């Protein structure tokens, strides 16, 4: 169907303002070559992108990164986004959210803040992010509530913090988060490099999921007090069917990277066979409707068996293209998480053999490690 | 699990807005969007914390020349309350 019908609007715009980040998280999904990707769009360029995407129908706007607070024009961008009618989300580590900036963002019309935590303990939070940020995040959480923003707390889960799930939930409730996203690690970027160190066992996952369910039952039973909606993002390596990644390629999601590269998924930069468009040289409408990259996996014409003949192909859209590429080397394959994939065995092996892979040290995200992983400058 | 408030109000955690590209009213909230059908949109627009359920029903019946919609309005508000749209 590629090109044969007009796609619906890009409802979700993700503005990755910068790849710079004060944290060094071992599970970061940013591209590992971030140190080679220094270019950033100007304020005027971002404003132009936001206007164009809004005209196409984008309604949700996430300001993300890296750490978006490292851009000192964030308030200006939020103000313009608010004026355009977006629902604005700040996705942050909390570093840089001072009382003065929080007030300016409130005045600019920011609608919501998503704050990341690494764990319920200072030790693990600070170890995994390689920064002393635990106390600061607690302070920022209180600042967010003082400004009456709805707060989503996000915690990436892996074998180191899965046993703390209940304490993480209790922390989110104590800090009055409206939502807690328990996001089991998705293996892209730095998380892919560190996958052996992060990979839990099925038993660890099941125990954590049982704790989440028990909490939901407890919360259901109490009629008053603060309510926190807990989302448990499925760890897809342990599933039999893939996630409906991005709700389908080029279906609702438009990501713009710091350098202006437009992608149907924020991890698509490394996929072979895509000529990724840039907002500095193409209009957002052309990118969304006509670019090769956004049409490459739109619909189902690109699918091979088993997806092509599968009656679930419009439910999960063949899963994740990046995962297919990382594990099989071919982005047109079925997501190997699917038990129908001829490559499913490789996912099973990645899980099973993880403990043996822990002989190499864990790699903290940093500019130096980025250059080591990518000795040649990217084209 | 709870009874409906006497004067339902759209929660400040949700934003009701008309989206030209979708030709629909939507509810926006952190990282999410619900597309509303026309009757849901008409009901929610009237949930301002001042009108009672009876006021809302009477207004809609007058505006659209219909009768007997109270059960439908109540059902929508109960569903909205369950989803946290209504304070």
Topology overview:
The complex is a heterodimer of chains A (379) and B (87).
Chain A: E1 12-16, H1 43-56, E2 60-64, H2 74-84, E3 87-92, H3 99-108, E4 112-117, H4 122-129, H5 134-146, E5 151-157, H6 165-174, E6 179-184, H7 189-193, H8 195-198, H9 202-221, E7 229-233, E8 253-256, E9 262-263, H10 284-290, H11 292-295, H12 313-316, H13 321-328, H14 344-352, H15 367-373
Parallel strand pairs in A: 1-2, 1-8, 2-3, 3-4, 4-5, 5-6, 6-7
Antiparallel strand pairs in A: 8-9
Chain B: E1 15-19, E2 24-29, E3 32-36, H1 38-45, H2 53-64, H3 70-82
Antiparallel strand pairs in B: 1-2, 2-3
* Number of H/I helices of chain B: 3
Biggest interface, and residues per chain?
A-B, 20 and 18 residues
Largest sheet of chain B: 3 strands, antiparallel
Mean pLDDT of chain A: 94
Binned, the helix content of chain A reads 25-40%
What can you tell me about this protein's structure?
- Chain A is an alpha/beta fold and 379 residues long.
- Chain A is built from 15 helices and nine strands.
- In chain A, helix 1 (43-56) runs parallel beside helix 2 (74-84) and helix 2 (74-84) runs parallel beside helix 3 (99-108).
- The model of chain A has no long low-confidence stretch (mean pLDDT 94).
- Chain B is built from three helices and three strands, in the order E-E-E-H-H-H.
- In chain B, strands 1-2-3 form a three-stranded antiparallel β-sheet.
- In chain B, a hairpin with a 4-residue loop joins strand 1 (15-19) and strand 2.
- Chain B starts with 14 loop residues before the first strand and ends in a 5-residue tail after the last helix.
- Chain A binds chain B through residues 9, 11, 56-57, 59-60, 62, 85, 87, 89, 111-112, 114, 148, 150, 152, 178-179, 223, 227, and chain B through 1-2, 12-13, 15, 17, 19-22, 26, 28-33, 84.
């Amino acid at each position: 169907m590629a090109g044969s019908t007009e796609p619906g609007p890009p409802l979700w715009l993700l503005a990755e303002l910068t790849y710079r980040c004060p944290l060094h998280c071992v599970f970061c999904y940013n591209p590992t070559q971030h140190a080679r990707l220094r270019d950033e769009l100007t304020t005027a360029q971002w404003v132009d992108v936001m206007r164009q995407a809004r005209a196409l129908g984008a309604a949700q706007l996430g300001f993300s990164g890296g750490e978006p607070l490292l851009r000192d024009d964030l308030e200006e961008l939020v103000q313009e986004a608010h004026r355009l009618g977006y629902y604005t989300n700040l996705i942050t580590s909390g570093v840089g959210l001072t009382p003065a900036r929080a007030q300016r963002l409130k005045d600019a019309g920011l609608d919501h803040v998503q704050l990341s935590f690494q764990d319920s303990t200072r030790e693990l939070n600070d170890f995994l992010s390689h920064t002393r940020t635990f106390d600061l995040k607690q302070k920022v959480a209180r600042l967010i509530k003082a400004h009456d923003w709805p707060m989503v707390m996000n915690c990436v889960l892996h074998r180191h913090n899965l046993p703390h799930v209940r304490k993480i939930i209790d922390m989110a409730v104590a800090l009055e988060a409206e939502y807690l996203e328990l996001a089991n690690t998705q293996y892209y970027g730095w998380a892919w490099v560190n996958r052996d160190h992060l990979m839990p066992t099925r038993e660890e996952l099941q125990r954590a999921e049982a704790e989440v369910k028990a909490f939901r039952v407890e919360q259901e039973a109490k009629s008053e007090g603060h309510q926190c909606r807990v989302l448990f993002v499925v760890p897809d390596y342990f599933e039999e069917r893939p996630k409906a990644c991005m709700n389908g390629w080029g279906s609702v999601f438009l990501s713009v990277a710091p350098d202006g590269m437009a992608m149907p998924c924020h991890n698509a930069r490394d996929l072979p066979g895509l000529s990724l468009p840039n907002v500095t040289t193409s209009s957002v409408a052309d990118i969304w409707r006509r670019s090769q990259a956004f049409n490459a996996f739109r619909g189902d014409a690109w699918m091979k068996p088993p997806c092509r003949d599968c009656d679930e192909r419009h439910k999960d859209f063949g899963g994740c293209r990046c995962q297919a590429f990382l594990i099989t080397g071919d982005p047109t394959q079925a997501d190997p998480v699917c038990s129908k994939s001829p490559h499913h065995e490789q996912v099973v092996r990645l899980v099973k053999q993880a403990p043996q892979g822990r002989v190499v040290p864990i790699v903290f995200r940093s500019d130096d490690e980025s250059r080591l992983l990518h000795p040649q400058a990217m084209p | 699990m709870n009874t409906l408030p006497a004067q339902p109000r759209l929660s400040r955690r949700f934003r009701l807005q008309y989206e030209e590209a979708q030709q629909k009213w939507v509810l926006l909230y952190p990282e999410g969007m619900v597309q509303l059908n026309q009757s849901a949109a008409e009901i929610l627009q009237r949930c301002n914390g001042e009108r009672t359920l009876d006021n809302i029903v009477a207004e809609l019946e007058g505006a659209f020349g219909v009768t007997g919609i109270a059960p439908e309005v109540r059902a929508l508000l109960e569903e909205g309350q369950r989803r946290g749209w209504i304070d």
